[in-house]
Amino acid sequence: MKSFDFHRIIGALAALLCLSSCGGKHFISDASFRDTVQHTLQERLDGGEGTLRAFYQVRDGALTDGGGYVDNLRLTREETEALEFLYAYMPLADLTDEPTGYYLQNVRAALRTREEMSWGKTVPELLFRHFVLPVRVNNENLDTSRVVFFRELYPRVKDLPMDKAILEVNHWCHEKVTYQPSDGRTSSPLASVRTSLGRCGEESTFTVAALRSVGIPARQVYTPRWAHTDDNHAWVEAWADGKWYFMGACEPEAVLNLGWFNAPASRGLLMHTKVFGHYTGPEEVMLEGPNYTEINLIDNYGSSNRADVLVCGADGTPVPGARVWFMIYNYAEFYPAVSKYTDAQGKTFLTAGKGDMLAWAVKDGRFGFSRIRFAEGGSVTITLSDKAPEGPLSIDIVPPPEQANKPDVTPEQRAENQRRTAREDSLRHAYMDTFLDREEAAAWAAGLPLPKEEAARAARFMSSSMGNHEVIGDFLARHPDTRALDLLGTLSSKDLRDITMENLLDSYTDTAAVLGPRVANEFLTPFKAFFRENLSAEEKARLSQPEELIRWTRENIRLTDLADEWRIPMSPEGVFKARTTFASSRDVFFVKLARSLGIDARKDPVTGKVQYRDHGPWTDVDFESASQAVSPKGVLKLTYTPTPIIDNPQYYTHFTISKITDGTPRLLSFDEGEVDMGGGVSWKTVFRNGASLDTGTYMLTMGNRLSNGSVPVTVQFFTIEEGKTTTVDLIIRESSSGVSKIGDFDAETLVSSDGKSCSLLSMTGRGYYIIGLLGPGQEPTNHALRDIAKEKDALEKWGRPIVLVFPDEAQKARFEKERAEGRYGTLPKTVKTAVELDGTIQKALPAGVKKTGKDLPLFAVTDTFNRVFFYSQGYTIGLGDQLKTAVMKL
Is the same domain home to 767 and 721? Predict the structure, then answer.
């Protein structure tokens, strides 16, 4: 008998023994689905020659190792089946990197809410299984937040109706965390609480974790990219009494189904969520992977249409199994938002908002694409080819129209909500005041035995670490030297805010290893100590040769072949123990093992390729090849004639470059700055004089988003040949017409400036000016101010005033404080501030351009002859560039 069959029989017997000895009710009442889960689990544990079986620490109805998380190791039938469900579908990293005791603790905490919360027994089994029990929300570090949050939230919500409990949880979340953009790594919920900051993905992950901790079904909803502006967003849906509701995470409103994003969401193309496991709910399934189900939620926010896609070969024959990427134009690229596969007839479909997308089909390296106009519905046919189209292609993209639908809120409800949020702000600020500001950090660092310049570095790290300053301070107090500072210098701002002492010491103490612990957006673990303890002296010596390390990795680390698996970064320790992973985690594993052995290795920040070097150029790692080589390269030079509107096109704002790899475009990531804000280099700094690129076929995407959200896009394919220079025209299509009057706004409108009533005219003098009505602390306002700061030089050169108006003195004071802290960057010197009187501007400005709604911020380019030439309302990324474009045309 094969060992494979033996293990299966033993596993089945163990399951039977558990069921007979444990007794009690089932977690999964459907016997057929229960059998499916158990079969999926057994297949998974038996895969890879059974290397994963050791990570599932349940034997004979008991836990073999509690891992410090649980005391009672005996499992009930309900607990066993809940664990089986989690282990059958959890990402591979979660299986290898956390002990079973951790998941049992979370299972017991989840089941407890069924008994202790008043709504516990009203939550349907399907929703509890998929939207309460799972620990993971997105791609965050896992932690013990479920247990911690329950202790705080239970007394606040236990006596409330379910819908009121959802609102109360969000108020609690607002006490703890507020919005700030950052890099793309998602902090754990507890780390977000520690630093009191999070981008929208972190705020929504945190809020979903909080809701699930008290037994409320919750899910994170993403628009992978907005259609009308350059950004994405995430928020939360929560279930109460038979219905799903939405809300802004950590942004409590007086009622559900209300947020600053109601209007932008109505213009969305896609809203989706990734559901843990095999889910059979009523929503449209966009993609079903082996351990998750991606569902479409667009109809919760706006109107939609279905479009059908037929993929054919050059001879017109339908192509089954082709992958079709549905792409949204955003940040000057066609972003692959979601993918589906064609059926046996070469067909697939998507339901999306009534705007334009690009459908890109690929199979076996051949590709083709077509614009889809969801406003018209219908169908498109894509023909696959092994050659890229010639000549510049014009593709005009139009977003869906706005159709915002907001629930009613009484003045009393709004006033009470404002009172509560102001108090919650004060509680959070009181905690954040315990962080070290720049002056306090400098005074602390002056006490270290360091030269003046090094002490200044230490102070910067301390002030950046925020809620983690005790860890960073303790580390520097123990090791006040250049090596410690150099180590901290390899970390991102977010790393400084949540790195542990264990991880710092792991890199600091191993002087034989390359210093930096971070490779990409993986979770940091003490990998250097692990490899020191788990590799023999002979293995370390042999693997210190890069060619030998590549060969060892190829022969010993098996790649999983599951397409569309939910792939969370695996730790190097988990990869080493399991001997199985997927390509991206193998890349990080190789780089970290190489660094542990003293080999300088990295993932190239532009291409993402794994590389190593030995006092020379970076050598690309090819795990499938017996020998390694430096990639052949050529030069790309972009030609462009500056205009008064766009004198220096920006990467991510006006153009991007993608390499066509196996028929699919892969973006070159020239990242500078925060991911949420776009960042990027420019034509003048990189591409005017030529940039070195690997040989191959590329796609240049060029566009300039207009104020109505539409984009005239131009696409150009080109080839880079070894040792040659390829010259391509950078084509940014602009509107040929000047700026027309679009409405009226009275320049004699009164505001309060420095406590005195005055007109806008008296503040600006005769001529053009920009006016903005803001809501400090709100995400759209934060983005708008940062965008204006990015265009500081151009707006100062224009020379006319920018009047920022606030709803009240308290919000103006908040802005001034945050401006002094550098929260928004450096704003133009032409900025003036004022306070609105009696809500006049919020009524008159939209009315003057025949718009409705009260979403902030409102921005307009106007003049003292009461004419409006540009208007923006609500959430708009790239506002600074749009304002610059408008004023340059006046």
Answer: no
